[in-house]
Specification:
Blueprint: E1 7-8, E2 11-12, H1 17-32, E3 42-46, H2 51-62, E4 67-72, H3 85-99, E5 104-108, H4 114-128, E6 131-136, E7 142-144, E8 151-153, E9 163-169, E10 174-180, H5 185-195, H6 198-209, E11 213-223, H7 228-231, H8 238-258, E12 263-268, H9 275-278, H10 283-297, H11 303-315, E13 329-330, H12 338-350, H13 356-359, H14 362-371
Parallel strand pairs: 3-4, 3-6, 4-5, 6-11, 11-12, 12-13
Antiparallel strand pairs: 1-2, 7-8, 9-10
Helix pairs in contact: 1-2, 1-3, 2-3, 2-11, 5-8, 6-8, 10-12, 10-14
Length: 396
């Protein structure tokens, strides 16, 4: 079939296997061009098929030479429907890892479930013995609690009052005002249940109890803080409350793992184009302005550059991992430089539909969004007839 992008709002419902493979290879090539990292040996990445999770797996395997297990919830192609981008990404990663002589395994299923936790632990015991790094990078809008059976749905809303600010339709370039009503108490509760730290805690508890976690193991989860422009809808909203819970979990896990020489962190990462960030009003316009400024300053990074810097300079580059006053790793440090934020704020004031392509990198945002799904990637013939069915080697 000839695979073309089909969008519905901020979602692309198709993906291109060759385009996804080329994007994965680009990340691998970047890592292979960097100095090797003296880091983890056996790595579990929960949420491993896209974004920061995928980049973490690539850095672990190709920079540190680690064995990896990736857990993710993606779908294979079926009939006229392509596989998800994460499926194609993981197929490409597994093939490249096998060619490089790295051990790697994929488990597809609901990471929130006890079943997938048990299946992962069995695989660790059989193939790797113990894990010394657990990356928690799950991004899901819903979660079914494995003990109570309740299904929670997250929302992206402010707390305490209605919020209005600029946003952009990154397909059309229209800049408009977005107004978001505040979350209810139950919406806040459910968002924390989905995006907070409870499931991360459950994973570490299960791994420890099964003897599948090495002494001195590290675990890291990912978060975002961002500037004042986005705080009402992000850091001070429902998502921020969930991230506060995630950070509190990190402190508990740091103490829990510390008894055997281990550690737990939340890494605050840079704003990047992801399917999740595209769904948050205000954020795509902010990222477009940020990209313009950081690219002009020569300090723009994507997922793979961020994760290589996290592993090489923070988690494994020094005797002690540098953290801020709240115990957070700040790999968003370049984004949050005062001079960068001052320039973004200046652009923000002036942004309109008429000048959005001039004052921001909206075209770069749009192109990067489609590249998440394997489209608009140089060197790919998008008019070619291609088989959307692709198997993943080492799928368990």
């Amino acid at each position: 079939m000839i695979i073309q992008p089909k969008t519905r709002g901020f979602i692309c419902t198709t993906a291109h296997p060759e385009g996804c493979a080329k994007q994965v290879q680009r990340q691998i090539d970047y890592v292979n061009a960097q100095p090797a990292i003296e880091g983890p040996r056996n790595v579990l990445v929960i949420g491993a098929s896209t974004g920061y999770g995928l980049a973490s797996r690539i850095v672990s395997s190709f920079a540190a030479g680690a064995n990896t297990i990736g857990v993710y919830f993606d779908k294979a192609a079926e009939g006229a429907r392509t596989a998800s981008a994460g499926w194609y990404n993981s197929a490409a990663f597994e093939e490249a890892a096998a060619a490089a002589g790295r051990k790697s395994y994929s488990i597809v299923g609901d990471a929130f479930s006890d079943e997938i936790k048990a299946k992962t632990i069995d695989l660790i015991r059989t193939e790797l013995g113990k894990i010394d790094l657990v990356v928690y990078s799950v991004a899901s809008p819903r979660r079914t609690h494995p003990k109570t059976g309740e299904t929670f749905s997250s929302v992206i809303k402010p707390l305490g009052g209605t919020y209005t600010n600029k946003t952009v339709n990154f397909h059309s370039g229209e800049v408009s005002q977005a107004t978001i009503e505040p979350a209810t108490e139950d919406e806040l509760r459910q968002t924390i249940a989905v995006m907070g730290g409870e499931d991360w805690q459950m994973w570490i508890d299960a791994l420890q109890q099964a003897g599948a976690l090495a002494d001195g193991a590290t675990t890291v989860a990912y978060s975002y803080i961002g500037p004042e422009i986005t705080h009402a809808v992000y850091r001070d909203g429902t998502i921020g409350a969930a991230k506060n819970d995630l950070e509190a979990t990190a402190h508990r896990l740091h103490q829990q793992l510390g008894a055997s020489g281990g550690r737990a962190y939340v890494s605050v990462n840079k704003a990047l184009v992801t399917q999740s960030s595209s769904a948050i009003p205000v954020v795509p316009l902010y990222i477009s302005a940020l990209y313009k400024v950081m690219k002009e300053q020569g300090i723009h990074e994507g997922c793979i550059e961020q994760m290589y810097r996290l592993f090489s300079e923070r988690l494994y580059g020094k005797d002690e991992t540098p953290v801020d006053s709240k115990g957070l790793i700040r790999i968003d440090d370049w984004e949050m430089r005062p001079e960068i934020q001052a320039e973004v704020a200046k652009l923000w004031t002036d942004l309109t539909t008429g000048n959005v392509y001039e004052l921001s990198d909206l075209e770069g945002y749009r192109r990067e969004f489609f590249q998440l799904f394997g489209f608009e990637t140089d060197g790919i013939d998008y008019e070619a007839d291609i088989n959307p069915e692709l198997n993943i080697v080492n799928l368990r």
